[in-house]
Design brief:
The protein is an all-alpha fold and 110 residues long. 74% of the residues lie in helices and 0% in strands. It has helices at 5-17, 22-34, 40-55, 63-84, 92-108. Helix 1 (5-17) runs antiparallel to helix 2, helix 3 packs parallel to helix 5 and helix 4 (63-84) packs antiparallel against helix 5.
Length: 110
């Protein structure tokens, strides 16, 4: 699995300092773990949007619900791009919020 840049930077910093105190090494590992983000829900929501795009289109729904869906999809893709680019400020709450908003928008399509 591909490690995030923040994690890799933490490991490099740990290697440079040659930490010998186990408590310091443990703290460095804990800090790296705290930066990890679970993206499963976001990936699932984006996969559902991809499936929707293959099967249906804008003409199949009301303009209002499609606009809400399109906005939620763009926001979810922006969070995904931020994760890929290892942007500051992307955290679990932001990922969860984008995933839920997209899931809700898909369910609301009529």
């Amino acid at each position: 699995a591909k490690m995030g840049k923040k994690y890799q930077d933490s490991v490099k910093e740990l290697e440079k300092t040659k930490l010998y105190d186990p408590s310091e090494a443990l703290a460095a590992v804990d800090a790296a773990i705290a930066k990890l983000v679970n993206v499963e829900a976001l990936n699932d929501a984006l996969a559902a949007a991809d499936l929707l795009a293959v099967t249906y289109g804008e003409a199949d729904y009301t303009a209002e619900t499609w606009a809400a869906y399109a906005a939620a999809l763009e926001a979810a893709k922006a969070v995904e791009r931020d994760l890929i680019n290892d942007e500051a400020g992307v955290n679990q709450a932001k990922v969860n919020e984008a995933a839920k908003a997209l899931e809700d928008a898909i369910k609301a399509l009529v």
